[in-house]
Amino acid sequence: MNSRVESTAVMARRIEPADSLDFFPTPPWSTRALCVHVLPRFEPVDTNTGLFPLMAADPACGEGHMALALREYFPTVTATDIFGYGFGGIADFLHPDERFAPRDWIITNPPFNLGPEFVLRALAIARRGVAMLVRTAFLEGEGRYSDLYRSNPPHLIAQFIERVPMHRGRWVIDGKSATAYCWLIWHKVAPRTADPAFMWIPKSRQLLAKPDDWLRFGGCVDLPKEHRAAQLIEKAKAYREPVLTLAQVRAERRPPAAATLADIAGELGRLL
């Protein structure tokens, strides 16, 4: 009777630092779902190229899972991240001293704990719109409402009717999840709305996944822990799973302090 005491809601929780980088790669098909089902409500597609004739940016690109998928729909996509995952440039999107060139659309999967900051920064930079892939739970919370939604409600909530499985540090092709996700859209050229519109994103995983995605995006399959291949992967630490904070990353990138006259005199004294 009490064999299943834990609620599946527990599976949606992640315990990590409050300003964790929160790296969970985005399944490519979920980005394509945005471009196929959601963005055409706001932007026309060029009939000659089949692309949105606009520039997009992903400021939390990770290993490029979202940026590469966006490139299938935009002629120009720039990608950066605060941490060097091996794709795109390195830039701290939230640092006030970082300067980002304006883009028509800022589209990203932001760290959950830093979501409001990402949205507000993106709204300040984007020329036309902002699209954020977030857990549906991101819609609730008194703090988020006060800091973000009260003054900047999204124009559209686009809820996936199927789960979008995300796993720390890697894209699992056959992954499963107890967490619900949606796209939030802010369209800066449209009139401000008091309450957002709502839409369902139809089933897209099978339709929009491509046969070569596993090769292009470095996907893997969700092997049982006792499987020999899974044990070798764990032993080799093949998947990078950093649980770093903004403070830790910024400390690593901080330039050395300027030398004082006393420092120089001390070094010269050791040479004599």
Overall average pLDDT: 83
Q: What order do the SSEs take from the amino end to the carboxyl end, as H and E?
A: HEHEEEHEHEEEHHHHH
Task: Please tally the helical runs, counting DSSP H or I stretches of 4 or more residues.
Answer: 9
What portion of the residues fall into strands of 2 or more residues? 5-15%
- pLDDT below 50 for ≥5 consecutive residues: which ranges? 1-18
Can you tell me the overall shape? globular
- Tally the beta strands: 8
Please describe what this structure looks like.
Helix content is 26%, strand content 15%. Residues 1-18 have low confidence and may be disordered. It has an eight-stranded mixed β-sheet with strand order 3-2-1-4-5-7-6-8, with helices on both faces. With 272 residues, it is an alpha/beta fold.
Main features:
272 residues, 9 helices, eight-stranded mixed β-sheet, disordered N terminus, alpha/beta
Topology:
Blueprint: H1 28-38, E1 55-58, H2 65-70, E2 76-81, E3 89-90, E4 105-108, H3 115-125, E5 129-135, H4 142-149, E6 156-160, E7 181-187, E8 197-201, H5 205-208, H6 213-216, H7 228-236, H8 246-253, H9 261-271
